[in-house]
Design a protein that fits this description.
Transferase(Phosphotransferase), domain 1, 8 helices, alpha+beta, Phosphorylase Kinase, domain 1, 5-stranded antiparallel beta sheet, 18% strand
Length: 274
Amino acid sequence: MDNSALSTPSPKWTEIEHLPEWDEEFYHVYTAKKHGKWLMLKTLRPELKGQEKYEKMIEKEFEVRYNLAHPHIIMINDFEEVPGLGMCIITDDVYGDSLAKLIREGKVTDDHISKIQHQLLDALDYIQEKHLEHHPLSTSSIIFTENIGNLKLIDVGFDQNTHITPKDVSEDIKNYGEVLMAALDAAGSNNMRLRRVAEKCMNPDPAKRYQDVNALRLALADRKTNNIYLAIIAFLVAMIALLLWLNSPYRPEPLHAQPATESEAAVTTPLTNP
């Protein structure tokens, strides 16, 4: 869209700016202020506006995503007409950089990789739990916020199904592996455990990939940390078992010394002089 159309914004909407790097297959993405508050806007590309198929698509995406609530998925606030843009999906503004940009600029760190391990996997688990039909995970749809560096997914669903198929799960896991490997390569990481996990996710044979998110989560878990947790749990179980045994009515009574007989007393009592 010609930015000249945005040169006279309404008092309600100001500072509307196109963000080409964030554009999606069917949408242009903008940042703007609504009553002074920064938000993000997603609207159909100009060549798609007015076509019933795509107009219904953006409405459907709003309906699907409006009730989602997850800390690592960008939330939708509204669906309304914005002067110069038309109907837009309105979301919270996300201050930060995409993983794609961080990779290009050589700024991927171990902290980013850790968040891909945990936060991205949590978001993927939620998407599958809600049976969301979505675009493939990619480095451009993952944002790390500027202030605290949390991970946010910005393109998470355009339809909702009654169930999710094993093929859908396998494709999600494959795409997750591609994202993880891209981040590891960009960071120059020698973490062979994570590389093996990413390689298994990307195996050309779906039968040889992780079969669900839980299996992938277990593979990603830090085994050293797991061993510590297991040791703590084993210790607590042993202490509980000991307490139960000590308080059990079936525990045998301790053996007490029997009183000595008269003959034993005579033998053991020292003789005294008269």
